Amino acid sequence: MALLNILHYPDKRLHKVAKPVEVFDERVRKLVKDMAETMYAAPGVGLAATQVDVHERIVVIDVSETHDELRVFINPKIIWSSDERMVHEEGCLSVPGIYDDVERAEKVRVRAQNEKGETYEVDCEELLAVCIQHEMDHLMGRVFVEYLSPLKQTRIKSKMKKLERAM
Ligand code: GNR
Ligand code: NI
User: Fold this and answer.
1) pLDDT band, very low/low/confident/very high, at 166 (cuts 50, 70, 90)
2) pTM of the model as a whole
């Protein structure tokens, strides 16, 4: 197992669009394990491969309080989303220290594959719904701060650059 390096906004590589996984081999299973280890260590409730500079459609999520319910979403697709919307405060391991409200669909149904390539569907609500939409945005090269006002984005960028310099 290995901890992976997490890219920090405003790194350009966070805006790359991930490609579908076609081969479900040992490499993909090791990447999923390393992503899970990296997410738990951070700690975070989700991680998209984009954040560790791997541009493939792979997401890991664990929203359980006991940190023992790992969910693996490979090639995820939202096949239904509710018209009802919700506002939830979000944070991101790629934008440390920044938390702000984002409006998203309240419920989504997702079709994805597991690390063996088996297709499954899951109904998501509450934090799981927020998180899968946040992670699927990463796979499209989108970071949650891009939903905030241009003024907030400018402030966040300069705060992040200052932080990087201090590290
Ligand atoms: O750890 C995380 N917490 C979180 C809280 C509210 C909404 C979304 C998230 S995802 C985040 C981890 C992360 O950056 N995933 O991409
Ligand atoms: Ni994130």
Assistant:
1) confident
2) 0.98
